[in-house]
Amino acid sequence: MEPRILLLGAPGAGKGTQSKRLADEYDIEHVTTGDALRANKDMETEYGTPREYMDAGELVPDAVVNEIVREALSNADGYVLDGYPRNLEQATYLSEITDLDAVIYLSVGKEELVRRLTGRRMDPETGDIYHTEFNMPDDEAVRDRLVQRDDDTEDVVRDRLRVYEENTEPVIEHYREEGDLVEIDGEASPDEVFERIVAVLD
Ligand code: AMP
What we know:
By secondary structure, the protein is α/β, with parallel strands linked by helices. It has a domain at 4-28 and 77-120 and 153-201: Rossmann fold (3-Layer(aba) Sandwich). It contains 9 helices and 7 strands; from the N terminus they run βαβαααβαβαββααβα. It has helices spanning 15-26, 33-38, 50-54, 62-74, 88-97, 110-119, 140-145, 154-178, 190-201; strands spanning 4-9, 29-32, 79-82, 102-107, 120-122, 129-131, 181-185. The protein has a 5-stranded parallel beta sheet, sandwiched between helices. α1 (15-26) crosses α9 and α6 (110-119) packs across α8.
């Protein structure tokens, strides 16, 4: 049986980076609502388009994201889930459609999150993540094509962190109370964080 992993943490905690590595390491699916929504930002739903919520840093309605996750998990044996659940209703829905083998929470302080998110840049060709201060690519061609996510501007970042505190911190408390949560210091280097996650899983 492949592992079914839930990775929790604030925006900027390193969920995307670590999920990619875990998906490679264990040969499992990387299920991420954020990427799925970005690829369908202008899709019409009965609630409007995802863009209307995402550009404001708000949560896309549960019905839309629950369906994305249901579909993705129905095709996956093992997976690492990243960016979902973001509120208690989503956590309840998730518990109805799957069981989890590990729940890991990457903890990072707020000012560090703001610094990471506002400096974050992405290579649109590979999806690789860089940072203007800490980690720029050596290749000039790659440097020149980096883009900033629409919602990584300082204003929207503050809104996303507020939404996180209001909606997603209770989800972390929920898993903590259930005794399933393993907390890892997300301010360690990416390699160290990865090693610690693998140690937990093994
Ligand atoms: P992320 O890439 O995970 O930071 O997600 C980017 C944006 O997509 C969020 O700010 C939300 O607007 C939306 N989004 C991603 N995942 C969810 C989710 N589970 N529930 C609601 N909205 C989501």
